[in-house]
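FYI - complex with WTA, inputs then prediction.
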Amino acid sequence: RYSPSSGLRIFSSTAIGPTFPQFLLASASTCTSAQRFSTTSKYSSENIISSPLPEITNKFPQLKNYSQLYDFSLRESDQFWGTLGSELLQWNEPFTTVSRHDHKSSTFRWFHDGKLNAAVNCVDRHAAEHPDRVALIWERDEPGHEQRVTYRELQEMVWRVAGVLTESGVSAGDRVAIYLPVSPVAVATMLGCARIGAVHSVVFAGFSAQALASRIQDAGASVLVTANSSTRGGRLIPLQATARAAVALCPGVRQVFVMPHSPQPLELADNEVDLERAMSAVQTAPPPSVQGAEDPLFLLYTSGSTGKPKGLVHTTAGYLLYAALTHRLVFDYKPGDVFGCVADIGWITGHSYVVYGPLLNGGTTVLFESTPVHPDAGRYWETVERLRITQFYGAPTAIRLLLRFGDDFVKKYDRSSLRVLGSVGEPINSEAWRWYYDVVGDGRCTVVDTWWQSETGGIMIHMTVPQRRGSGTVLCCAVLSDSQGKPVYDSGATGALCVSSIWPGIARTIHGDHQRYHDTYFAPYAGLYFSGDGARRDDEGYLHITGRMDDVINVSGHRLGTAEVEDVMMEHPEVSETAVVGCPHALKGETIFAFLVLKENSASPQHKIETELRESVKHNIASYAVPEFMLIAPALPKTRSGKIMRRLLRQIAKGNLEDLGDTSTLADPAAVETVLKLYRQMP
Ligand code: WTA
């Protein structure tokens, strides 16, 4: 079990950039951004903030570096975004209004009277200009089997998928569920939907049948696209079987397309169609559907603090612009680069920095289907050498894992192509940062820690200086708020991490529940977007992320609501109460600790119940959601009003047994004593 004294500090907090009281107070002139961003660190020369801008537009010749760009984006927001919106995207009908927001109803609109097509922007315009440029490099599970797809080939794939979907009756606005491994056909399916104005909902291919079914149903998808099976780390993943089990629970699904991903012959049920065959049969490409800028582009489900995952709705133009711009700015993207983001397309990182950002910029993007340790711990760096990757973007959890295997796995491969190393999804601890910088990057690459969320659509905060891991903000204004929604600037202050301006990439609503959107993100702190994360301000004004303020935990970079796990465990006939909390873990960042109370009449041995619970969580959610620790107690500590004292359980799960804080509101102090005793007896 993790003990806080075991050496590796997991929650060494992440610094995220100076903050900008000036902007909040609406006078930008009292402090220059150079002062705000200045740092005396030995790494400061690596700082993107003061470095010249990558080529984005020649419309702002006066902007020489990132901080000037940042200031301008906040001061002249509509001019800034409007200019970039026209420059970076291709429009069928130009917009006349840049932004129109109604804060009262949390309704945000960007470029709303403009019309465009997302797939044309990602593929067709580049296929017309440079058809033979490689769009995708599919790095398959087995090393050395990569496949390259040019823009011309990708265009044809997208046309064909769009044709298949149209022939099956899918039209603009319909939702299409995608349950596929990272692969060219997955990208073509996302963009095939976009071509005809359908809304894709990619479900991570590690999710269980139950989890897939609930997402299909919430989205009201009538078509599912999957594969017969895939392999990851050499292990076969039976996608079609899982998809079948999900579809059995979804009467609304009328058609399932199955990609023959692995060589086994396809076996098809009545409602299943061979996707590859259907694609070859398409005679004419459906014309791109001309969509409104604010039409939904995709749904993406993410965990919140209540049981039901939220279907975030991202719309078209604003999302595309934000993904494209941040991809260029944060990663210093240049034509000819090979961009290697190793995230799965089932997460927002995969959407924005495997698919949309790189393709919008006409880039070459790597689709990584494997794991960091297959066939050994050198896999990432062997791939970097073979594909000549220029930017590598991954998660701290993998870095923490790999550094334990030693430097040789890195050093034996040529990494001279690398310029930028990115980190995303969770705080990067100092040991991992240093190793990434010194060993992987040979001390010459920029390491950039990026903070953002499924809700934000793209990177919000980025920083290249280790002591300030986290960042300077990206064209949005991060602020620290006290409990009343008042910004706080005192050093040492802690508060809620909020954003004070509306940026184009923000999710516009939660599918079918706009009230929940408003209540979650805008009601807590008036006038501010609330991220759900907490932060602390240091002596120099930088913010350090301290972790989630709600009941969301982060296991290996995967977001998980504790209520989701509790809901599943409560289904067990012998369980009467559960409380699930996160506790620090040396590799995963956080892991899951479940406290349980059994029913009076429960007769099964505890280990049997625990095994059943683990199985059930895996079956209903996914493997990463399975609790690592379980403690069965006769009762859980509760307040006099009957609420479980989670704060206390969190302390116990962390092993902070001495410092349990205020226990005066406990209804039954003996319950804590028993839990503590049982905890001490745990193996
Ligand atoms: C956490 C992933 C510290 C944070 C793109 C956030 C981070 C949640 C960082 C979003 C970082 C993400 N440092 N924490 N650089 N990046 N987080 O929606 O708690 O899967 O709220 O989006 O991950 O997770 P999501």
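The first helix runs from residue 21 to 24. The chain has 21 helices and 33 strands.
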